[in-house]
Amino acid sequence: MDSQKVDMFILTNGRFFESYHLGQIRDRLLSMDDSKWFILQTVQFKDPTISLIVSLVGGTFGIDRFLIGDTGLGIGKLLTCGGLGIWTFIDWFLIMRATREKNMITLQQLLY
Amino acid sequence: MPLKENRLYPFAVLAVVTGYAWVIINLTINKNSDLSAPGLCLFKTVTGIPCPSCGSTRSVLSIVDGDFGQALIHNPIGFILALMLVILPPWLIFDLITGKRSMHNFYNRAEFYLKKKAIIVPLIMIILIIWIRNILISI
Fold this sequence. Notes:
The structure holds 2 protein chains of 2 kinds. Helices cover 75% and strands 0% of the residues of chain A. By secondary structure, chain A is mainly α. In chain A, helix 1 runs antiparallel to helix 2 (19-30) and helix 4 (48-58) packs antiparallel against helix 8. In chain B, helix 1 crosses helix 5 (77-98) and helix 3 (56-65) packs antiparallel against helix 4 (68-74). The interface between A and B is medium-sized, with 23 and 25 residues.
């Protein structure tokens, strides 16, 4: 793929991924076929900031975990009143990273 | 999305240990403490409204006492939690001894089904009903 396109992708979507993933993503995209460019543009990524807001507001009910696709953990959080409140608190700090990891998994399904 | 194997097992062990510790702590302290006192629940402390799972500790304690009717009044979710506390430790030990990954497989399959609308919508409805009931009787 054109390096200009790849850099554009990194610029627009860089905040959805962990910084140490970006190098790997760039290498992979450069070696990819141009036909995937359109599909790549249509992939929806979850915004880490949104999930942090949701975590702050609805963390007790596990809504943040539901949002990023961790349905099992979401149910667990909901039934235990946010893991006795402790899990809610811990997730305020973990949820942004978890969202970025989920985005990476989404992208990986497309790349490989 | 599937939870990684190496994360599920420590997490399950932590959950079970915390669960048992919480039950034991509550068994040793005064059971009939004031209901309106701010508890561990963040939502209840902030808003004053009980959350869907408020009362499940009392429910589990009632199950420990063998008073299932009272447990149902406190919160039906307590039955699920009590069941988890009973099932999970033997399951973890079984997986540890045999080296199988049965809990991990089960978790992934459960998550797959939970994403289906036909299952998650009734589940949320049940939770909502429990929540409304909790608010009405201000548990």
